[in-house]
TrEMBL record:
Its cofactor is pyridoxal 5'-phosphate. The gene is bioA. It is an enzyme of class 2 (transferase). SUPFAM superfamilies: PLP-dependent transferases. This is Adenosylmethionine-8-amino-7-oxononanoate aminotransferase. InterPro entries: Aminotrans_3, Aminotrans_3_PPA_site, BioA, PyrdxlP-dep_Trfase, PyrdxlP-dep_Trfase_major, PyrdxlP-dep_Trfase_small. Homodimer. Coiled coil: none annotated. It catalyses: (8S)-8-amino-7-oxononanoate + S-adenosyl-L-methionine = S-adenosyl-4-methylsulfanyl-2-oxobutanoate + (7R,8S)-7,8-diammoniononanoate. Belongs to the class-III pyridoxal-phosphate-dependent aminotransferase family. BioA subfamily. The modification N6-(pyridoxal phosphate)lysine is found at K300. It comes from the Bacteria.
Length: 451
């Protein structure tokens, strides 16, 4: 009774104060900065209570870590969730199936680049990468190459926070040093040279230093050849490295990876968790390179930010190899695999995306280019770049995250900077005025804190 009374008293207090020291937040200490408390979310705006007790309404420039592409409280997604709740919210997927999962799987293989034929549902993006890596190892064993136990990837990548996913993240800027002796050792090629997506007339073109691109291609091919006998797959975020630095690179690099995979009998795994469903200006980033992967991971925007869901798509060749192997199955099975509620909302999200994503992303890209360009006049700014619905201000040193966050909130924008980057990946449904607010707020925050 005393515990219940204490909880009731705490619930009446300040949620941020109650949070502090009790709840872990991503990459933050328990005694870290006081979080902003969300009291409401609608459209592309969040209602916040700030650490100083003031309130603010801000445009969410982050789309809740890149997933709320339709904004908040979207009537179509709300209705899909309510309809599924009226039927059933969850059943196990072992030995059972249901329309939301099958219908969503049909949609995904139909819209994916290349001849995708099978879908494995997971409960988060990181777990989908774990599944894809397991799949590659099982594939190589099934096809007579059980010695192939390592992966080839590029520096600067980020694929999630679970152990196998961490092992293919950047070995320097990732979390390898925090878990010595536990993470598997894989093969890392140099980062591709930085590229720019620039408007040329009525179309966008990638601009890259050709000499650097040629050198990178030679280095990647040589590294793959040197380790080919031990490699199972190439793992990559196509065209845009996300949490590794919001760094775009030329689609021709992805073509090189496809050629290398084919030459040496490797699978090409495309991590489209952040880049999929239109974020880079193509429905899937692989399409910039006219490349079809063997395995593709999707998540984040899949449910429009409503529920956690991810999927691993694969070709019939990969599926057949697993089916005909000694195990006969892909050795993974999450409790919430193919959660019906998440699948129903995901199908509704894809309905919304189908007819609107291209025009919306092109419009957001144009507004970001216009709105962020004045940041180049600031002394602290090293670079500004835009790819699809991604806009980045790169500073000449580390961002003062709490100060820039607070300054952006005062200017009506929610951002979550990291390293030397103040960036936005906004909801696709942002109006031109919303994007202008985001850009102005980011620039004002950088100017105020870093000059």
């Amino acid at each position: 009774m005393r515990e219940a009374a204490t909880l009731a008293t705490r619930r009446g207090g300040d949620v941020a104060a109650r949070d502090r020291g009790l709840v872990w937040h991503p990459y933050a200490p328990l005694n870290g900065p006081v979080p902003y408390a969300v009291s409401g979310a609608s459209g592309v705006r969040l209602s916040l209570t700030c650490p100083d007790g003031s309130t603010a309404e801000v445009v969410d420039a982050m789309a809740s870590w890149w997933c709320a592409v339709h904004g908040y409280r979207h009537p179509t997604l709300d209705a899909a969730a309510h309809r599924q709740l009226d039927d059933f919210s969850h059943v196990m997927f072992g030995g059972l199936t249901h329309e939301p999962a099958v219908g969503l799987a049909e949609r995904l293989v139909a819209m994916a680049p290349g001849p995708m034929a099978h879908v494995f549902f997971a409960d988060s993006g990181s777990v989908s990468v774990e599944v894809a890596l397991k799949l590659a190892l099982q594939y190589q064993t099934a096809t007579g190459s059980s010695e192939r136990q390592r992966f080839l990837t590029i520096r600067g990548g980020y694929h999630g926070d679970t152990f196998a996913a961490m092992s293919v993240c950047d070995p320097v800027d990732g979390m390898h040093s925090a878990f010595p002796g536990v993470l598997a050792s894989h093969v890392f090629a140099p980062r591709p040279p930085l590229a720019r997506l620039e408007a040329h007339g009525d179309r966008d073109e990638w601009v890259t230093d050709e000499a650097e691109l040629a050198q990178w291609s030679r280095d990647f091919r040589d590294l793959a050849a040197a380790h080919a006998s031990e490699l199972a797959a190439v793992v990559v975020e196509p065209v845009l490295q996300g949490a590794g630095g919001m760094r775009p690179y030329d689609p021709r690099c992805v073509r090189v990876m496809r050629e290398v995979a084919d030459e040496h009998g490797l699978l090409l795994i495309a991590d489209e968790i952040a880049t999929g469903f239109g974020r880079t200006g193509r429905l899937f980033a692989c399409e910039w390179a006219d490349v079809a992967p063997d395995v593709m991971c999707v998540g984040k925007a899949l449910t429009g930010g409503y529920l956690s869901l991810a999927a691993v798509l694969m070709t019939s060749r990969v599926g057949a190899a697993i089916t005909e192997s000694d195990f006969g199955a892909l050795l993974h099975g999450p409790t919430f695999m193919a959660n019906p509620l998440a699948c129903a909302v995901a199908s509704a999200s894809l309905d919304l995306l189908q007819d609107t994503w291209s025009g919306n992303v092109a419009r957001v890209q144009s507004s970001l280019r216009t709105g962020l360009s004045p940041a180049l006049d600031l002394a602290s700014v090293r670079d500004v770049r835009v790819v699809g619905a991604v806009g980045v201000i790169q500073l000449d040193g580390p961002v003062d995250v709490p100060a820039v966050t607070a300054a952006a909130v005062r200017n009506g924008v929610w951002v979550r900077p990291f390293r030397d980057l103040v960036y936005t990946m906004p909801p696709y449904v942002c109006t031109d005025e919303d994007v202008a607010t985001i850009c102005a707020g980011m620039i004002a925050a950088v100017r105020e804190v870093h000059g």
